Amino acid sequence: MLTEERHAIILQYINDHKAATVTELTQLLDTSESTIRRDLTTLDNSKQLRKVHGGATVLESNGIVTTEQDVRFKATQFGDEKRAIGKVAAGLIHCDDFVYIDAGTTTEALVDAITEKAVYFTNGLIHAQKLMRKGYEVHVPSGCLRSGTEAIVGLETLESLKKYHFTCGFFGTNGIDPNAGFTTPDIGEAQVKREAFSRSQKVFVLSDASKFNQVAPVTFGDLERATIITDHLEDLRYREKTSIMEVE
Question: Which of 1.10.10.10, 3.90.950.20, 1.10.357.20, 3.10.20.70 is the CATH number of 3-59?
Answer without folding.
Answer: 1.10.10.10
